Each structure stands twice: as C-alpha cells, then as structure tokens.
Amino acid sequence: MPDVSNIVKTIQDIMRKDAGTYGDAQRLEQLGWMFFLKIFDDHEKELAITRDDYRSPLPKSLRWSSWATDAEGITGDGLLDFVNNTLLPKLKTLSGGADKIAGLIRMTFEDANNYMKNGTLMRQVINKINGINFNASDDRHTFGDIYEKLLKDLQAAGNAGEFYTPRAVTQFIVEQVNPNLKKRETILDPACGTGGFLTCVIDHLRKQAKTDDDERYIQDCFSGIEKKHLPHVLCMTNLLLHGIDVPSNVRHDNTLARPLRDWGPKEKVDVIVTNPPFGGMEEDGIEANFPAEFRTRETADLFLVLIMKILKPGGRAGLVLPDGTLFGEGVKIRIKEALLNECNLHTIVRLPNGVFNPYTGIRTNLLFFTKGQPTTEVWYYEHPYPEGAKSYNKGKPIRIEEFEAERAWWGKETNGFKTRVENERAWRVPIAKIKEGNYNLDLKNPHQDNEGPGDVDHLLPEYEKLLAKIAETRSALKAQLKEALSR
What we know:
The protein has 487 residues and is of the alpha/beta class. The protein is built from 17 helices and eleven strands. Helix 1 (4-16) packs antiparallel against helix 6 and helix 12 runs parallel beside helix 14 (331-342). The longest helix is centred in the last third of the chain and has 30 residues, at 456-485. The termini are far apart.
C-alpha cells in the first residue's frame, strides 16, 4: 500500500523546485485543481461500474486518465502547452446544458491557473498523484488527513489562511447545533471556505443514516457559498472526498453582494453553521444591499444580519465571531438589539487567545442562537487553555477533547430553555442587565478574580477595544462637523 503522506510530501518538494510555484498559496491552488481532476476521474471509474447509463461530462481528451496516467506520456513543453492552451481553457468553457456536474466543473475552473513553468517537474508531480487511488478506502481516508494538514499550512500563507477553521471548532459547533437527519433539515454555510463545516455536517448526518434514502438526502440537504476561487476549488475536492457525488449546491459567489430583501422564503434554512470572515471590510456599495439601520462595511456584522434573515422560525445557528462584535458601538448595537429581540441567543462560548494563530491573534467567540423567541438570558462559558499551555500555535492547535467540559455542562433543552448550572467557568446574564449595558455582550467571568494588569495577550484585546471606541467617536464627531458646515 502506498504511503500517501510521503507522496504528498514528495509532491510539495518537487513543486518547490519550480520557479512558478513560489509560495504555499500557489502550490496549493495548483494541487487543488490537479487533485480535483484525479479524484473526479477515480470517481467516474466507480460510477461507470455502478451505473449502466453513466456518461462523463468531460470530453475524452480532457479526462485525467487520457492525458495524465501514462508515466512516460506527454511531458516538458508539450505538457505545458496542453495544460495552458487546451485543458484549462476548455474546462473553463465546458458546455453541458443542464448537466449539473458539467456546470460544477466549469465553475470550479473559471479562475484556475497553471503556475508551474517546468513541464518535466509537472510530469513528476502528476506521476506522484497517480500513486493515490481515491477509490481505495485506506488511501482516501489517509489523504483526507493529509488534506487537513495542507489546509492548516495555509495559515502561514498570509491572508489565504483566513478560510481555515480548526477542526475542533467546526466539530463542536456542529455537534451542539445538531442537524437532524430524521427531520430532513436543511443546512447552509454562507461563507463555506474549504468546506470544514459542511464536511463536519456530512459526517454528523451519516452517523444518523439508516437507509439508502437517508444517504440520498445527505447528498443534497446542505448548501454553501464561497467568494474566493482557491477555497472554492478546495471545497469541491473536500466534498468529493467525503462521498458527495455532485457537490453542485456549493456556489462560487459573494453571499453579501445580493440584496437582503431578495432572499425568499423558499431559501430559508433550518441550520446555519459558519465562520464568516472577520477583521476585513467589504468593497464599496455592498452595504447598500442591507437595511439602512444595519449598513456597515464590516464583513462579520453583515453576515450576522444575513443569518438572522435566512433562518427559518425555530432555525438554529452556531458561528464564530470576533470580540469586536460583542463590544462594538453604533451599528453593532442595533445589530445586537435585533439579534436579542428576534432570536434566543442562549450561549456564548468565549475562546482564549490564539485559536486562530498564526493567522490572527484576535479573540473569538462561539455564538449559538435559535430564531423565533427573544432572548431572556445569555449563558457564557469561558473556555480555558489546556493545563500547562499559555496559547495555541500551529504545532499545538485547539483539540476537540478540550470541549468535554462544555459538552458535559451544555444541558438538555426543556420548553426551549436549557437546564444548566453556574460554575467557575459558566455564568448567566439576564436580558435586563444586557439592555442596561447598551447591549454590550463582552461580559467578564464574575467567578474569576482580577489578578493585576495581566499579560500582553490579555492587554492587547483591551487596547483593540479602546481603539475601536476611539474610531467610533472620531466618526461621530466627523459626521457632526460635516453636518454643521453644510448648514
């Protein structure tokens, strides 16, 4: 049996020799579309056996098995010419009418690039990829683990790392929101990145599956939207690896570019799990798609407004949000007021610094809410570092085992409310107190003593809050001055 881990490492070493793949992001984008074609080709071989009427959406000349599988086949400048001038251009314009998979392939390749400049090195990479059989269960599962490692490596590739959420976080959120297969619930991730939440949902639902009809439902019950090309290609590959035959319900699009009023009743969903991009600003004009009282260019805030809109009554959400959303002023207050009035924000898990290291040191929170009932109280749980640790890093990320305490504390739901008790990590805050505090949700653990000024990891978020408040005040003064001068 081939050593998949060693194959992937060798591929990366070969690509480092090529002048075109000069960074992690380029190498992964290149690997993304190459692995997609190989995985899809293996998938087609299986379909050809199991389905008598199966017809490939790809012309024979474009199939991986036609041009890539011969170890002594096309190489050097000839290979580069084929990939640059035939393969990629034809995949980008692939016709197929109403064929879902043809449309999916076309969308997957619309922004694909060949970064490699050495055709001989490319042939070496292709030959190594051919050493993995994605129809073999052991190879597929081993590659799944390697694939997760490749995604983690992106955290060191500048802002490309923004779409990787630690697996422990996605798994915990999905477990607690608990999508229900028996109830035939629909699930959405409106900022799906490389598909971490969606694959967790698939795994969660498969544990509940008992019939062929259950499996058929799993194939189509979820949807996702991803703005950037590279994570979208990786998401397609991830879903194929997780046994989704035609992952056409994941679109390459900007979720926020659509006016909020255009989301119709039929598009509402039962469950939303997501980690919307935070710390960034949307381009000019995007905020005009939202009601005047919620207009902002801050991405995470706009996603929160969107989620409130597209959840069904009784629908549940679990998402990652930065500290800034909890303590922010201005538009943020109006968004939080709407959230607490329209939804039961029953739980906020406060994560410590470093969960998203090395991409960002911004503190994050896990918010869980149900649409349709106003909030009467918010439960907080302060997630501690593991014993002996002072932060997380690439080598020691947050682990799912660390959430055992939250799982035990979570409680069962009775009449829409959870049976819980306070402890040194958990406390509750009634809605009246939150309203008195002008909807500030950045509330400290009352069971923890204040032990002096603290270290830089704790002081930095406080400094960030102060800067945010200064910026809010400056904007307000600027607006008042502009109004005074215009009279």
